[in-house]
Amino acid sequence: MTEAAVDRVLTAAPGGVRLDMDDGVRIGLCGFTMAFEDYVREYRVVEVQQTFYEPPREGTMRRWRAQAPIDFEFTIKAWQLVTHDASSPTYRRLRSPLTDVDRAEAGGFRTSPIVLRAWERTLECVAILRATAILLQCPASFRPTVDNIDRLRAFLGTVQRPSGVRMLWEPRGPWPPEAVATLCRELDLVHVVDPFVSRTVTPDQTYLRLHGTTGARHVYTEAELVQLADMLPAAPTQPTYVLFNNLPRVEDAKRFRAILARGLSRGVMVRPVRCPDLPGLASEQQRVRALEHRGDEAPDLLVGVRRHPSAALNPPRRSSSGAPGPWYTPATVSIIVAVSSMSSLLRIGVDG
Fold this sequence. Notes:
about 350 residues; TIM Barrel; three-stranded antiparallel β-sheet; 11 strands
């Protein structure tokens, strides 16, 4: 069966098996990285980076908002004066002059005059861009100490939080998941992660940032992008955000979007099923069972697995030998069989 034929079958299949941005996944880049006009034509969301280093001029942001489609979404990073100490190398890109007192009191979620002014400036950017979320990205030096946690609580309990704007938090370093989960519940935060590094504790509001598994220059392989797609929530109640932040992000985001559009993951996996502990799903036996259900010959079967929602964001399990195990949830596996004649679509239920 040709890829075009596969696309036609998947699009016509019941259950919404074709996946694109309108199906709950919003793909974008951290920074425009390309001509503005091209970007807003290709994507529906961007994470603005300039607001972290030095907020852009008001006129620049108003032009962005005016020239973007009405449904185009901006998320922004809070100004580094809120989150990062003045010793951070990112301050090299700061143009605003700071006094010695400002430098001593900047960052770390302190409720100091310089930090509170920086937060007010961040909120001005939110208002101009009509941003839907603010990212609080912490440096790895912001460890889960009592002092840091107290300052985070005091800051978020003091500052204004715009209605309808989500607060995203990306802690780095060795933060225990239990501590992160507690703070996210208490402070109404969305836990942001690179899914190749850690697992979010707020899967109902998934916001992923891809930094590159081997560093910023990393080019994601096809297998890694399919794995990324497998890690998306199976039945999200809110849109899932996937933002690429590696240097080759433009091409990687395009390739990932193409994978989703081809239905290679989540809804229907158009690839061989790897279910070694269900021998009834071996290649030839799949064909036989499909034929039995259909009652006649069904050539050129393409088989896919729809994961149970509880498998969302869980990595592939491993057997006792260390080999990768099945990537389905044994409790419920739905097998979708796409027939090349496109005259039928069989659904076989397998209970593990």
